[in-house]
Design a protein that fits this description.
- The structure is a homodimer of 356-residue chains.
- In chain A, helix 6 runs parallel beside helix 13.
- Chain A has a 6-stranded parallel sheet, with helices on both faces.
- Chain A is elongated, with a radius of gyration of 27 Å.
- In chain A, helix 6 links the parallel strand 1 and strand 2.
- By secondary structure, chain A is α/β, with parallel strands linked by helices.
- Chain A contains 14 helices and 12 strands.
């Protein structure tokens, strides 16, 4: 059993752990290898002896090191979750949903925040790989495909959530972003708007691209022009929503309706509109992706495209556990967003006046 | 070098890694131990040989396993951060601030969500201990003192953030919660309110206790009674704020002013007030702890006690790095919250009417 002890020595908490094993053995007048075996292969130790050892171990607060064990077995009971922005309540809700499923399977979840920064995502992927997490749920920044492929080859199951990383053997859970953006555009078109603007996210992200595409398609189907000046590409963060809105309001002919492709940029848009006393919905109808909590508390409350956030997180975790249970084929699930009409979207003023 | 190889064997990615070392050695016609040494003690290998080895290693995408290394050194370049509720934007802001400092020191941050659940906190503490994080920043659920003491004895530096865990050798970064609650009460008293209610958090948490104490002290100093019916103990989550508000509104003589001790419960209070069409501030003045983003977007905007959230996170991380650099004495930093007066707090109606 020398090799096993050697492992214990190096892989548990250094010498201290070995001392603890030795101490326990001494105290019980047993061989150290018996103590070690009682912890690693309890079925090989007589029940009475095992009981005595486990009791003593408990009294020492000795806790077998699951990461050390996992280095032999090759995995831990931990899921890694990389979110692209922890301050976005959309991702906080996903963390919660993933944890709910993971903890039902006896797994812990560690969260890394890529902060929309490819370099931080790189570090997070390396860290989770070194932790030997059982699998990774990954809201991609759009970079690091190379590392993802390498992790996948090493046997880490990976689930893409919300955004497609490009990894062909990852399971994927997405919202139909194009359909969501189409719903938003069609709602504004039905209200009678003809000068519509959009603030979308980065075009290397599926979310940013699909939300622009859906919006464009709906306008094109309705034969409404979408001039370049009314299309802004932000970075899904508050500041870019603010800046794009300021530029839209500065146009000689500003839009009468604005679709913002996530809640963070919508918060920025709101700040710009308040600062300039632009009345919603009188002067500008506003609709945003994401039904975050504060959307319904605004005055007027915000019309939104709601994503089934909890379901996204739950499904992603379930797909990961299916993989861990042996499923081989790649699964892609696309969930449908819904339109929630509230006070921030009305017919444009000229139509409302003509109606009156 | 056999023992070193043994470590590599067990601590890197199992047999595969050994095979990789052997492969590299074969390819370069070198001894395996030379390859191993070039990775672990490069100064002991001739430069030309080292260069050849490192080049080949790079071509294999071989990456030394920092957790395995850390098992020998006894620490990783990773901080563990336990937040008590990831959906609370207060903690999301703290995550971001901690990450900022950590990444400046070349450290990664992993986040665990205790979800206000002592059992999840237990799991998170064990997980971080097994990961051998360099240190732990900990927003306590108020439980697990026993485990914290054990981790501290094992040499994990621990910083309490926002809430006191009871661990005497932890550094602590807090907001002066009593002062914050006093500010809130004094503001409402100055407006002329005499029937004030409070919804606070669990009394086993310093935040819940101190925010009630501060409120009570200010009322007592002003010789204003605080009957039990106007004091509600929630759990810092949205639902409890909702329920407490419903009960307050059901009183034969409801309060004219309400102080809610965090933003999550304030969101619940708002829902209850909206559902029952209770006008803010006409029928009820509202003030909440935490200047979360949506507070200023409400109509009327919410009067709040703002916490220096970013500074809390930054300081906590800085204290942890000071510990890692050798500081021995225990440090406790208490930051001051501030009152931000907005539209949700006005004189009670009878006074406003009398003034007119």
């Amino acid at each position: 059993m020398v090799s096993l002890l050697t492992i214990d020595f190096y892989q548990r908490k250094g010498w201290k752990r070995l001392v603890t094993l030795v101490e326990i053995a001494k105290k019980l007048n047993l061989n150290v290898s018996t103590v070690s075996r009682a912890l690693s292969r309890p079925d090989m130790v007589a029940e009475a002896t095992r009981e005595r050892i486990l009791e003593t171990v408990a009294s020492y607060e000795y806790r077998p090191n699951s990461i050390a064990r996992s280095l032999r077995k090759g995995k831990t009971c931990t899921l890694g979750l990389i979110v692209s922005d922890i301050q976005n309540p959309f991702y906080a809700a996903i963390v919660k949903a993933v944890e709910g499923i993971a903890s039902g399977h006896g797994y812990s979840t560690v969260v890394c925040n890529a902060d929309e920064n490819p370099q931080k995502e790189t570090e997070a992927l390396h860290l989770l790989s070194e932790m030997k997490v059982a699998g990774i749920i990954h809201g991609s920044t759009g970079a690091n495909l190379h590392i993802l492929q390498s992790l996948s080859r090493q046997g880490f199951p990976i689930v893409d959530i919300d955004r497609v990383s490009g990894l062909t053997d990852a399971d994927t859970v997405l919202v139909d972003n194009q359909a969501g953006a189409r719903l938003a555009a069609e709602h504004l078109l039905e209200l009678g708007h003809t000068r519509l603007a959009v603030i979308t996210g980065p075009q290397h992200l599926t979310t940013g691209r699909d939300r622009l595409d859906g919006f464009r398609l709906a306008l094109s189907a309705a034969k409404i022009a979408l001039p370049d000046a009314l299309v802004h590409i932000g970075d899904f963060r508050e500041g870019s929503g603010y800046e794009a809105t300021v530029r839209l309001l500065g146009l000689s002919s500003p839009p009468t309706a604005l679709f913002v492709a996530n809640n963070e940029m919508a918060a920025g848009a709101l700040t710009a509109l308040r600062e300039r006393s632009v009345l919603i919905p009188d002067a500008l109808s506003l609709i945003s992706f994401d039904d975050v909590r504060w959307a319904k508390y605004l005055e007027p409350a915000l019309t939104v495209i709601a994503q089934p956030t909890e379901q996204l997180g739950t499904l992603a975790a379930e797909l990961l556990f299916e993989r861990l249970s042996g499923r081989k084929e790649v699964v892609r699930r696309v969930l449908q967003p819904t339109l929630i009409t509230r006070g921030s979207s009305t017919p444009p003023r000229e139509i409302a006046v003509a109606d009156a």
